[in-house]
Amino acid sequence: MIYLDNAATTKVLSEACEAAAYAMQSVWGNPSSLHRMGIEAERLVTYAKKQLLSALGDTSGDIIFTSGATEGNNTAVFGLCKVYGKRKKRVVTTSVEHPSVAQPFQRLKDLGYEVVTVSPDKNGEITADSLISAVDDNTCLISAMLCNNETGYILPISEAFAEIKRQHPDCMTHCDCVQGFEKLTVSAKKLSADVITLSGHKIYAPKGIGAMYVKKGVRLSPVFFGGGQQKNLRSGTEAVPLIYSFGKAVEILTPTLKQRFDNAAKICEYAKAKLNEIGAVVISKDSASPYILSIAVPNIKSETILHFLEEDEIYVSSGSACSKGKKSAVLKEFKISDQLLDSVIRLSFSFETQTSDIDALVDKLGIGIKTLAKIKR
Amino acid sequence: MKQIILCKYGEIVLKGLNRSGFEAELLKNVRRRLKSLGEFKVSSIQSTMYVEPLSDNIDLDEVTERLKKVYGITKICPAFACEKNLDAIYSTIKENLSDDLNSAKTFRVTAKRSDKRFPMTSMEVMAELGGMILNDFPHLNVDVKNPELTVICEIRDKAAYVHGPAIEGAGGMPVGTSGRALLMLSGGIDSPVAGTMIAKRGVIISAIHFQSPPYTSERAFIKVCRLAAKMTEYCGQVTLFSVPFTKIQEAIRDNCPEELFTIIMRRLMVEISQRIAEKYDFSALITGESIGQVASQTMSAIVATDAVSRIPVFRPCIGLDKQEIIDISYKIGTFDISIEPYEDCCTVFTPKHPKTKPTLAEVEAAQNAFDFEPLIQEAVDGTEFKTFKPYVDYDFLI
C-alpha cells in the first residue's frame, strides 16, 4: 500500500496509540473528580497542554481541547465574534478557507455581519497587503489559514497579522493551522494570532481530537454550555485518552520538525521532476508546503485517476477529501484553468514517504496517461 | 548588530554607601531568573544594568517578560548597541526602528550623553538625528510634547544604545535586601497578593499552609503549590511549609463554642506560624487580611488574633477593597488559580453565625478551656516543606 493522502488523515503513531490505551485502561478517571483518580487524569490533560503550548512557543497561552478542527474553527469564529463583535459587525476572511471556516462566516453573514472575503490575485497569490487593507477600524475579526489544504499554498500570515495588530490592536486574529502544525514552523507569537486551530488526526494522533490555542488575555464566548469544563469554554468531560495521545504525538514530532520538513522537501522536489517527465502539470507553487503537492493530469478526470491508482493500492485524493468529489471552488480561486480543474489530484506526504513510493506512483500514472486519455469525455 | 537590554534602577540609586550591596542582590536575582533561557552577561555600570545575551536563539521577548517581574527595576529598554558616532547611531536606528518610524506620524528624538567625552551635546545629537530621520522618513512630523514614537539614544561609557520607549518595570526593592517573612497562604485571592506586595519591598517570602485531610482535598494542596510556584515569578524562590491541622480543627469543634470557631482557629494558626518562623529564622508574618472583609477580619477579630503574636504581622491588604486586591492578583497571575473551587482549611467547620465583635477576654477564656499545647507542638513537629524555584516546570503545575 502506498498512502499519499496524508493531508486527509494520517496513521496514528504507535506511541500515541499506547498513550491512548494507557489512559483508557490505567488512568480512566474523570479529570473533574475531586479524588486522586481525577487528579491523575487531569495530570495527563495538563501534560498534553504543555506539549502543545511549548510546540507553539508560548507557554503563557491556553489550550482548549475540542473534538477536532471543525469544532475549533466554529468556536473560534463565533466565540470571538460574540465577545468582540458586539459593536463592530465586520469580519474578514479569505476565499480559500476550509469549509469549517468558510461556513461559519456564511452564517455570520446571515446574522447581519458584513463579511469581506479576500481572494487570490490574478497570479493566484494572496498578498499580505490585500489582507491588511481589508481590515478597518470597524473589523472585529480576521480569520485566515496558514497553509491551504488543497494546494499547500502558504499564506503570509505573520506579516499580515503583525501589521494588522499594529494598525488595529482591537481586531482579533484567528489562524487555522491544521495543515501547518508540526509540518511548518508554527509560532503563536510570530503569527500574532489570538486564536489558533489545530487538529490531531493530521499529525499522527487519533481522529476526534483537536485543540484551540488562546493567547493570554483573549476572551472567547463558549459554544457549548454545560458542566463548565476547560474554563467554561468547552463544557463536556475531557476526552482524556485522545488528549493524552495528541500530546504524545506532539512531544515526539516537535524535535524532528526540521528533519521531517527537509525530507518532505526532498520527496516533493523528486516527485515534481518525475511527474514533469511524464507530462503531469504541477499546480502547487514552488513556495508551497512540501507536504502537499497538487498536480493535474490533462484530459483525465481526477476521480478516474484516483480509482485507477487505487487498483495498485496507491491512495491519493481528488482536490480535498472533505469535498468528496465536488468540484473545488478553492482551486478555482487559485486561478487554475478550467481545463485543468477537473483533472487535479492531491498528493500529500508523511515522514514515512519514500522516493520508491513516488516511483511506483509515477510508473502507474505514466501507464494511465497512455491508456486513460483515450477515453472520450 | 548587538541586542542588549538596559534596565534602570528604582529607589536603590538613592541609597548611600550600601548601594553596591543592593545592586549585587539585584544582579543575582536577574541571573537566577534568566538562567533557564540561555547564557547572559549581566553587569551594572552607572546605575544601569546591562543584560547581554551571549548564546544564540535567545527569546528576547521572554527575557523582557521575566525582567518585568523582577523587583528593583523600574524601566526596561530592549536596545541595539553600536559605535559611538553619529553615522553608526543613525544606521542602527534606520535598521531596527524603521517599522515603527513608518507606522508613526509624529516622533521625537531623546538623547542622553552620560559619556561627556562625546564631542556633541545631547541637544546637538537630538537635532542631528531628528534631521536625518526626517530626511529618510518624510511623512513624519516632529512633536516634542506628545509624539507617537520616541526614539531614544543613550551615549554611554562603552557604546551608544538606541531604543524605543522604555517598558515599565515592577519597581520596588531587590528581593533579598530586606529580611525574611512567612506568609500565611490559604489558597484564596488575598494571601498571594499580600506576599507579593511585601516581596516588592525586598523581603524574601516563604509560605505556610494548613492542611486538614480528609476535610480538605489533595487538590486544595496542589492549588496552594501552584500559587506558591506562580508567586516565584515575582518573589524568587518560595519555600512552602505545610502543617497537619486536622486534629486541631477537630479539637476546636469538640471543645469550643461554635461562634468562636474561626477566631480560635486563626489564633492557633498564628501561634503555629510564629513557632515555625522562630525555628526557621523569619522575622515577621504576613497575612492577606483586609478590615471587615469577613467576620474573622473585623477590627475586634483582628485584635483578638493579634494578641497571640510575638513578632510583627504585616497585613499589606488591610486598606484595600476586594476589587483592588483582585486587580493585583490578575496582574501577578494568581487570580485564575485562586478562584478554583476547592475546600480549604479556613472553610472547614465554618460557624453559621460567627461572632463579629468578640472580646479578647471571652476568646481567651474559650480557648483556655482546652489544652491545645500538645496538639500545637505535634503540628509544628509534623510540618513538612518543599521549595519552588522560578520558571521551573513542576509536574502538574501549569
CATH superfamily placement of the largest domain in chain B = HUPs
Instruction: Return the CATH class of the largest domain in chain B.
Output: Alpha Beta
The largest inter-chain interface, given as chain pair and residues per side, is:
A-B, 16 and 15 residues
Q: Into how many domains do the coordinates of chain B divide?
A: 2
Secondary-structure element string of chain B: EHEEHEHEHEEEEEHEHEHHEHEHHHHE
CATH architecture assignment of the largest domain in chain B: 3-Layer(aba) Sandwich
| Broad structural category of chain A | alpha/beta
| Helix share, percent of chain A | 40-55%
Give the N-to-C terminal Cα separation of chain B: 36 Å
Total DSSP helices of chain B:
13
Distance between the termini of chain A: 30 Å
CATH topology of the largest domain in chain B: Rossmann fold
Strands across the major sheet of chain A, in which order? Answer: 2-8-7-6-5-3-4
Main sheet overview of chain A = 7 strands, mixed
Sequence of secondary-structure elements of chain A:
EHHEHEHEHEHEHEEHHEEHEHHEH
How many structural domains can be distinguished in the coordinates of chain A?
A: 2
Structural class of chain B: alpha/beta
Tell me what the structure shows.
- The complex is a heterodimer of chains A (377) and B (398).
- Chain A has 377 residues and is of the alpha/beta class.
- Chain A has two domains: 2-9 and 257-372, Aspartate Aminotransferase, domain 1 (Alpha-Beta Complex), CATH 3.90.1150.10; 14-254, Type I PLP-dependent aspartate aminotransferase-like (Major domain) (Aspartate Aminotransferase, domain 2).
- Chain A has 13 helices and twelve strands.
- In chain A, strand 3, helix 4 and strand 4 (114-118) form a beta-alpha-beta unit.
- In chain A, helix 1 packs antiparallel against helix 8 (240-253) and helix 2 (36-56) packs parallel to helix 8.
- Chain A is globular, with a radius of gyration of 21 Å.
- Chain B has 398 residues and is α/β, with parallel strands linked by helices.
- Chain B contains 13 helices and 15 strands.
- Chain B has helices at residues 19-34, 60-67, 86-103, 122-136, 190-199, 218-235, 246-255, 261-280, 299-306, 322-331, 335-338, 360-368, 373-381, and strands at 2-9, 40-45, 48-53, 73-82, 106-113, 141-142, 149-155, 160-163, 167-171, 180-184, 204-211, 238-244, 284-286, 313-314, 384-388.
- In chain B, strands 1, 2, 3, 4, 5, 6, 7, 8 and 9 form a nine-stranded mixed sheet that branches. In chain B, strands 14-13-10-11-12-15 form a six-stranded mixed sheet, sandwiched between helices.
- At the A-B interface, helix 2 of A face helix 6 of B.
